[in-house]
Amino acid sequence: xxxxxxxxxxxxxxxxxxxxxxxxxxxxxxxxxxxxxxxxxxxxxxxxxxxxxxxxxxxxxxxxxxxxxxxxxxxxxxxxxxxxxxxxxxxxxxxxxxxxxxxxxxxxxxxxxxxx
Length: 116
Prior knowledge:
By secondary structure, this protein is mostly helical. It has one domain. It is 79% helix and 0% strand. It is built from 5 helices and no strands.
């Protein structure tokens, strides 16, 4: 089996699909915001308490997830886990976090198969 297709479990495929949905979903709205010349950051904090609540909620989750990526990536011996955090700044955490989880699952599967 080639390295690209090896160790893909149903869970890692599901996480990869979520990652792609996260990228497409967020960037669809990002493109709309750019085309309509919307003040993207201003809307996040000034569109009312509900939007501000969701913004803070997701920001805290993204920071906690970023810490998890860095710590768990290093613990699992994954190469360049910081790249997932950096990519989230230019893509979306909804893309990079499930992508990291998919790659982590592949790493765990490979380790389990190697020890069996």
